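#lab-general

N.A. 3:47 PM
ok so I finally got the sequence cleaned up, no stray characters, all 141 residues accounted for. can someone with queue access submit it? mine expired

B.Y. 3:52 PM
send it over

N.A. 3:53 PM
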Amino acid sequence: MPIRAGMSASDVNAAIAGTFPALLGIRYVGVGQGRAVATLDVRADLMAPTNGLLHGGALVTLADSACGVGAALSLPDGARGHATVELKTNFLAPTRGGRLRCEARLVHGGRSTQVWDATVIDEQSGKPVAVFRCTQLVFGD
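B.Y. 4:20 PM
back already:
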C-alpha cells in the first residue's frame, strides 16, 4: 500500500510492513502534513561490530525514513512520488541502548523539491544524538 496524505501513524506502520525500515524496527508514532515522528529501539543486532555503538547506518535510516514518510504525506497536487537525492547527518553523541525518537519536519515544500530537517533524540536523556537534513526530489506527471 503506498503512503499518501491523510494516513495515520497506524496506517503508515501497516504500509511499511516487510520493508527495510520495518525490519530495523522503526515505528511511526505521529504523522501529518509536514511532519513525521518515528521511534527505534536500540538492539544488539543494530550495533556496529567494531565499537559496540549503534551503527550509523541504522541511525541514518531512521532519519531518512521519517523524512521520506513525511515527504510522501506532503506531496504537492499532481506529484506521483519522491526520492531522497541528498542527505547529511551530524552525529552528536554515541548511542548504546534505549529508544531513539526522530522528529522530522518540512523546511521547504516546493513543486519539484522538498527539504526536511530531522532531530534524533535519546528518549531517556532527552538529548539529541544526531541532526539530519535531506532533499527530496518530487516526481511530477
